[in-house]
């Protein structure tokens, strides 16, 4: 699974790292770091939950 993280949509809610802190990275201000994330197979369920829970829709699944 690949997820595109978009800082411009992030509202710094922190839910992604609450669900999958080893997958997502926030900057010092609490915004997700821009970029395409290759999600390890054993963390796909958690990453998927994070994408659903993200209130800014800032975590876009680009490849399942
Ligand atoms: S859950 Fe979404 S809005 Fe909240 S910090 Fe993560 S990417 Fe940003």
Automatic annotation (TrEMBL):
Q: Could you identify this protein by its name? A: Ferredoxin
Q: Which organism is this protein's natural source? A: Ammonicoccus fulvus
């Amino acid at each position: 699974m690949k997820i595109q993280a978009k800082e411009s949509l992030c509202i710094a809610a922190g839910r992604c790292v609450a669900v999958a802190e080893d997958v997502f990275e926030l900057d010092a201000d609490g915004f997700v770091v821009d970029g395409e994330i290759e999600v390890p197979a054993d963390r796909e369920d958690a990453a998927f939950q994070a994408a659903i829970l993200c209130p800014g829709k800032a975590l876009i699944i680009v490849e399942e």
